[in-house]
Amino acid sequence: MSLTTFFTIKEDVLIIRLSGELDHHEATILREAWQNKLREGTVKHVILNLEEVSFMDSSGIGVLLGRYKEIMQLGGELVVCAVNPSIERIFNMSGMFKIIRLEPNEENALLSLGVAS
Amino acid sequence: MKNDMTLRFLSVSKNEAFARATVGAFISQLDPTMDELTEIKTVVSEAVTNAIIHGYHNEPDHYITVTCAIEDSGAIELIISDEGMGIENIKQAQEPLYTSKPHLERSGMGFTIMESFMDGLAIKSTINEGTTVTMKKQLTTANSVCH
Known about the structure:
The mean pLDDT of chain A is 95. In chain A, 41% of the residues lie in helices and 32% in strands. By secondary structure, chain A is of the alpha/beta class. In chain A, α2 links the parallel β3 and β4 (78-81). The radius of gyration of chain A is 13 Å and the shape is globular. The longest helix of chain A is centred in the N-terminal third of the chain and has 16 residues, at 24-39. Chain A is built from four helices and five strands. Chain B is α+β, with helices and mostly antiparallel strands. Chain B has a single domain, classed as Heat Shock Protein 90 (2-Layer Sandwich), CATH 3.30.565.10. Chain B has four helices and five strands, in the order βααββααββ. Chain B has helices at residues 15-27, 34-55, 90-94, 110-117; strands spanning 2-10, 63-71, 75-82, 120-126, 130-138. In chain B, β4 (120-126) and β5 form a beta hairpin. The longest helix of chain B is centred in the first third of the chain and has 22 residues, at 34-55. Chain B is globular and about 40 Å long. The mean pLDDT of chain B is 94. Chain A binds chain B through residues 1-2, 21, 23-25, 27-28, 31, 55, 57-59, 61-63, 65-66, 86, 90, 93-95, and chain B through 13-14, 16-17, 20-21, 35, 38, 41-42, 45-46, 49, 52-53, 96-97, 104-110, 112-113, 116.
């Protein structure tokens, strides 16, 4: 099972919906697509929706931390939403929630960034 | 009863999914819980990714071997080995968040996850000869419970 990525833009927020498995192979592909979207310069914040992600290992953490730094440089915020318990465990282990905000769903994530859904 | 299988495949990153799915299918005969299955698939993914990125520097023309042995009691032993560059300092490699390749956006959590998800982890490595990671886990005896 590979990873499918859907990009949507709402005001200055890039919403990324992932579906499938996020490992090292898929993280490399995601990184490039995500960076290209950020370089277009139309967005400030990013919401990463992991609702349909069935598997993620530490390579997912790596790609998130990499983009977190880039988004911070843009003066924006990275919000992660709809994380399943096994992914949440890996997030907790690596201390991700100390720097990246987690919201239960996309609607809450949008509201937290001041965008009405 | 004991059962085991061995996979040998090229160090191509697409094979990370192949390796964890295959090990997952093999251990399914022990009737693991969903959490246990995810844990096993995650550690296989971590160890195979390490072999590809660190053992073989992302070169796709080397071999990785994964052996999985199981017992009816629910005991699982996983051995993931490469014939790559080896780990200079195993203790340092095991430190949470340590990575020798930060430019590749590695989180440095691979060995920490393997240690945390499994009951035992042993790393043997020789420079320029390769690395072998052995992991053990005892599943909860879910298959002795009535269904």
